[in-house]
Amino acid sequence: MKQTVWTAAAITALLLVGCGQTAPTLGTSTGKNNFTDATEITGDTVTVNESGAGGSLGNSSSDGFTSVYFSFDNYGISAAMQKKISADVSRASQTSGKIKVEGNCDEFGTDEYNYALGLKRAKAVKDAMTSEGVNSSRMVIVSYGESNPVCSSPTDRCYARNRRVDLRLAR
Length: 171
Known about the structure:
36% of the residues lie in helices and 12% in strands. The chain has 171 residues and is of the alpha+beta class. The radius of gyration is 20 Å and the shape is elongated.
């Protein structure tokens, strides 16, 4: 009887230890972003070539907004993308409804990592638009992580097109 109890206790202990998961590391001190708070944007500005997103950087929706693209593993807004945001601010001033700011990622990284990175990207765009005069209460941020790709080819150009923030009128 004692042996059965000890065996059951040992198996239970092994299962509990084996099932424990640690939180994913969402950045390191080696030049990548350190994600410690999903509402804090502290990353460095990165450079994104306007044609680096795999072709035309057109509208992200039929509402006339333009997608904002990001470098791999970053949520900083480049000067070229800031110009796109300024155009989106002009478009936002012509509307009265809420604006949905949708963060997206490529397929690299865990689901949790990509969700957090999508939130960081969406918040960065929201903050940039707020600093140019769009009322923050008019904007809602959402992260799709890697679940909303616009391209599925296994190429760098395709991955770059998925690292973006789309803006839409919330309906």
